[in-house]
Each structure stands twice: as C-alpha cells, then as structure tokens.
Amino acid sequence: MSDHQFAPESQMMSFGYKPELSEGAIKCPIFQTSTFAFKKAEDGKAFFEIAYGKRTQSEGEELGLIYSRLNNPNLQITENRLSLWDGSEDAAIFESGMGAISSMLFEFLKPGQAVLYSMPVYGGTDHLITKVLPNFNIQCVGVSPLDDKEAVMEKIEKSGLKDKISFIYLETPANPTNALVDISMFREIADELKTEENPIYVGVDNTYMGPIWQHPLQLGADLVIYSATKYIGGHSDLVAGACLGSAELIGRVKGMRTFMGNMAGPHTGWLLMRSLETLKLRMEKQAQNAEKVAEFLNSHPKVDKVYYLGNLTEADGRQYKIFKEQCGGNKGAMVAFDIKGGEKAAFRFLNSMKLIKLAVSLGSTESLAEHPATMTHSDVDEDIRQEIAITESLVRISVGVEDAKDIIWDIEQALTSI
Ligand SMILES: *Cc1c(COP(=O)(O)O)cnc(C)c1O
C-alpha cells in the first residue's frame, strides 16, 4: 500500500503545504509579505550562500525563505504542484507568460548566437524574437510547421546561421489553426547541430494544450513554457507564466528571474493554486464541449473549413501522425473556422454572439471568440498568414465550460444573422 502513487489531480489540494505551519488552515494562506525573519544570523548566511549559488545544498538542507523576489510559499507550492502534471523536476512561476519566455530566452541565448523557431508563434513572442533580440545581436531563423526535416535543414543552411543556433523555440499546436510542429524532429535536429561548447536546448510553448493534453518534456524538449493566464489560471482573472524542466535548467531560469525581478507575487501564486485544483475537470469539460461544437460547425452550410485537431484523419499524413504520437490523440478545446463571406461575415458573426464573449485570450471557463487576422495575428507577416491559412474569414473560438447546447445555440443564431 505504501508505494501507492497519487495522480496529480488528487494532490492539487494538498501537495507541498503543511497546515500545522499555518494555524491548521486547510487552505494555504496568502503570504502577503516582502521579507522573512531569520531565526539566527547563521541561517541568513546559509540561505544566501545557496540562493546565490556559492555552494550547493547539502543533503536534507532546506532553502529557507529570504525575500519575496527570490522565494515565497505561495510561489514555491504552486511551482511544486504545477511540476506534477508534466513530471518535471522543477518549475519557475512568473508574473506573465511573456515574463517566462523572455527570461528563458535571455538565460540561454548570448550575443552572437541565434534562435531557430517555428512560425507562427504568439504575437508577443514573435515581437521579442524578431524585433527585440536582434538589438542584443541575437538573430533568428523561422521555419513553418509544414516543413519536414529536409526543408528545415535547408532553411538553416540558407540562413548562414547554422553554427550560431543555440536554442530551438517551438509552439505547438500553432495558434490559431492548430498546425502541429513535430517536437521529436527538432530534438533530432538539436542533437545533430549541438557541440560540446554549444548545447542546443529545445523549449516548447505548451499553452494551447495545457499540462493535461501534451507533455513536451517526455517528447524530447528540455524546457516547457506556459502562459498560465490561459488554461492553468483558467478564469480570466489573472496574468501569469511558467517555465518547467530539469532542476539544473530551472535553477538557471530562476537565477535570471531573480535579477529581472519578474516572479509572480503571493496573490497570483495563491490564485493559481486555487485554479490548479480544477485544472483537469475544466479542461476535460472544455474538450468535450469543443468536440460537440466542431461537430456542429463541420456540417453547417455557412462554414467552409473547420480547424480542429479532432478533424485530422489518416489522409492528413504527417500531421495526423504527430497528433497521434505527440498529443496522444487529445483534441484540445480550441476551434477555428472559415465563415463564408470574408471579414464582413466574420464580424457580423462576432457582433451577434449573445453568450460567447468577443475577446482575445483563451482557455478560460467562459467561451471566447475573436478574429485572428485583424486581432491576435494582425502583426504576423502576410506570407506566413497565407501559408498557414489565417484568412479574413477565420474566426477562433476558445470553448468554455458552459452547457454545450447553449454554446451551439449561440453559434447557430450568430451564423443565422449573416
Ligand atoms: C497568451 C500567450 C502567451 C503570452 O502569455 P501572457 O500571460 O499574456 O504574457 C504566450 N504564448 C501563448 C501561446 C499564448 O497564448
């Protein structure tokens, strides 16, 4: 009996928290404090030695609390709980997804190096990679989800940056059309290009599938990124981010976080703990609803093409294979579709919704819809938009936890208004 292993969802209410240290409170309180009292000066000295990497922790030695830019119970317990879903050694929580992405890239890329990335990535990430990093003499090479290994290698050769690539950044499924990027293929490419002095790490933005439906660390990635604003937070009431991986790599990310100063505060950590308790419940319900929504859209005469992972079949070849192997057949809860009639019809649809909210962001309890071409992806280069089919008529829906009948009723009445 003693070797029984609890599933993550069974541990979200208790893991890493000791009620006896907090007056017996069942729930972890908010540790709304900037600094922590040391019992004696020797403790303060020891905690700093470890926090600043002057020596490694000895067996059984705990890293005591110092100052909330370095550590705080709400942050640490959330990090420990989030790690359970992906089976990672450690996690670092940030005050936003962009905070996690920028700190990770700045830790692993140095001036003179280059990042290989899959296009399109989230708009903020795209801006960081193509507009901000070049100011620090860090170049980039973009590849498409539809490129096979040969095509990727050709683009790398052509870029003239082959010897400089030091990090591979992927986002899969690609937002908004659910195009899948093959993580294991990029692992192979990293292993072929790396040298002793230049280990090439692979980081994957797993926001779209959340920690329930896809586990990049098990597929060859070194680091996983989340915008915890989305499924993990799940209630459209917070902005947060996370980076997960081995203790060694996350130790480095946390070092960068300490000096960038972009860790999450105690209240955000506390809200995330609340959210993690229902993560699986919410995501499973959202996936069930999305399946019904996609089925409805698939047969509607005013809808042209529906982009939904559950629509992939053997006929889709490599994409179907990646879906099976990488997503374990999980279909997610993001659906995009082309409405007949272009931007005018798409806007008419969005303006007619009564239950679904017209807003960007995703993964929340309420259903949200938006127009990628003029909103989330308005900054993406025209040729990439063409290549991955971000058309004027495309609408993206993040399916929520409402009664599926009501979501479908709303879509149907909004389509009728066109
Ligand atoms: C929202 C989002 C981000 C950015 O996260 P923030 O929490 O808004 O900073 C990064 N990647 C993806 C895929 C996202 O959807």
From TrEMBL:
Entry annotated with the keyword NAD: no
Cellular component, GO, one term: cytoplasm
Listed Gene3D superfamilies: Aspartate Aminotransferase, domain 1, Type I PLP-dependent aspartate aminotransferase-like (Major domain)
GO molecular function terms attached to this record: carbon-sulfur lyase activity; pyridoxal phosphate binding
Ribonucleoprotein is among the record's keywords: no
Cofactor: pyridoxal 5'-phosphate
Pfam families hit by this protein: Cys_Met_Meta_PP
Family, per entry: Belongs to the trans-sulfuration enzymes family.
Name of the protein described by the UniProt record: Cystathionine gamma-synthase family protein
